[in-house]
Amino acid sequence: MRFAQIAWVIVLFSTEVAAFEPAHLTQLTNTHECFNCDLSGADLSGAALQGADLTLANLKGAQLENSNLKQSTLAEAELTGANLSDANLEGANLWYGNLQAANLSNAKVSEANLFAADLKGANLRFAHLKGANLSNANLQFVDLTLAQLEMAELLLANLTGATLKDTNFEGANLLGANLEAADLSGAILRNANLTGANIEKAILCNTTMPDGHVLYVGC
Q: Which phi and psi (to 5°) does residue 4 adopt?
């Protein structure tokens, strides 16, 4: 009886980890269109999905490392815990997407639309986000160490407690952004717009400010 119970738990666990619909995966592969599909836990590593329509798709826990999602539509997609390391998301639409705890390390996300996306706790180390739209995005506790955000839009973005070490924000728009308790050690904010931004309790150690002067606060 105990063996049967253990076996059932294993089956349930396996189902939860790889719960995607095989027919949906086939549809995506053949047509590059999969609106509201269930691809949770699917292995799409290295997939060529440029321009694909994955609006409202469930990609929770999916493996998408090294995938090409350039100019794809992932609006309101569920990407919690997904692995997008080294993925190409240039010009992609991730509007209102859920990317909590996702891995986007070294991902190419330049010019992408991440308006109001939820990236809480995501790994964005070394990510390329030049010109990306992150306005109203939830970036609480993200790791953006050495990320490139030149000319990015971060209007009213929530960066509370974020790790922003050596991050390049040159020319970025941080109007009204919340940077409370963020670690901006070594960050570059030259020509950035910090009007109305909250930097209370932020670490500004060797941080280049908008006017070019360097602060050593909280070192």
A: -65, -40
Write out the two tokens for 137: 């995005």
Rg of the chain over Cα atoms, rounded to whole angstroms, equals 19
> Distances in Å between the alpha carbon of 90 and those of 97, 181, 209, 210?
15, 30, 28, 27
Tens-level pLDDT at each residue, the chain (219 residues):
333 332 323 333 333 445 778 999 899 999 999 999 999 999 999 999 999 999 999 999 999 999 999 999 999 999 999 999 999 999 999 999 999 999 999 999 999 999 999 999 999 999 999 999 999 999 999 999 999 999 999 999 999 999 999 999 999 999 999 999 999 999 999 999 999 999 999 999 999 999 999 999 999
Consecutive H or E run containing 208? strand 204-208
Residue the block writes with tokens 């996300």: 109
Q: Angle at CA 154, nearest 5°, toward 149 and 155?
A: 160
Full 3-state SS string of 96-153: CCECCCCECCCCECCCCECCCCECCCCECCCCECCCCECCCCECCCCECCCCECCCCE
82 CA to centre of own chain? 10
Q: 176: exposed, middle or buried (C-beta count within 10 Å: 0-12, 13-18, 19+)?
A: middle
Within 10 angstroms of residue 216's Cβ, the number of other Cβ atoms is 10
Q: Which two tokens stand for residue 47?
A: 């997939």
Residue type, 139: L
* Whole-prediction pTM: 0.90
